[in-house]
Amino acid sequence: MQPKPAPAQPSDKRASTHLRGITSGYDLDAWPLTLSIEPDETLSSWWARIASRFGVSPAALFREVGFRMGSYTPWRVEQRLARPSSPLSVRTGVSNETRAQAHTAQARISDLLASVTQRYHAPTISSKPSFGSRFCPSCLAETGTWSGLWRSPLITMCPYHHVMLVDECPQCGGRPFSGPAWAMHERRN
């Protein structure tokens, strides 16, 4: 009795790693849970909400999509998420254009502040606060999203609830989005 011949190897190595078929019309690369970007939501907030839904940290979610991040500061994360990426669009269900528009809306605040400081020879005002992000506790309790308005140094009061924005968590005293630690831990809803 002769031994059975070995099965033929695929000729294209790339094709052999992606042999998962689409069963019954389902895309196996798309994540089962998708969240849209809310109006005026920052991309880092959107990413943290997705990670929270899957029960992982934002950093773990980045590893899942194959992104290598040297630093998880909110601004670096948002720049990375705003770049075109077909795999990211497929997995999250949010198009490259939608992510770019969300990032562009936040960049407008920076451009406005730069033009004001240049025109009136004012000291430089940055919309990238080094201390983290301020927030409206009422808005955060209602929506669970971080507004891009809260980053502006010109906005000190919530336009919806008419309360002063706070920059420290009332429970732990921490400063939200003040460094890369926000991406390392799971967020509880």
Task: Describe what you observe in this structure.
By secondary structure, this protein is mainly alpha-helical. It is 38% helix and 0% strand.
Short structural description:
The protein is mainly alpha-helical and 189 residues long. The chain has helices at residues 13-17, 43-54, 58-65, 74-82, 86-92, 96-119, 137-143. Helix 4 (74-82) crosses helix 6 (96-119).
Topology, element by element:
Blueprint: H1 13-17, H2 43-54, H3 58-65, H4 74-82, H5 86-92, H6 96-119, H7 137-143
List keywords for this structure.
mainly alpha
Distance, first to last CA: 64 Å
The main β sheet shows up as: none
Instruction: List unreliable stretches of 5+ residues.
Output: 9-19, 125-130
The ordered H/E elements are HHHHHHH
Apparent shape: globular
Number of helices: 7
Overall average pLDDT: 76
Helix content: 25-40%
What structural class is derived from the secondary structure elements? Answer: mainly alpha
Task: Provide the gyration radius in Å.
Answer: 21 Å
What proportion of the residues form beta strands (DSSP E)? under 5%
| Number of E-type strands | 0
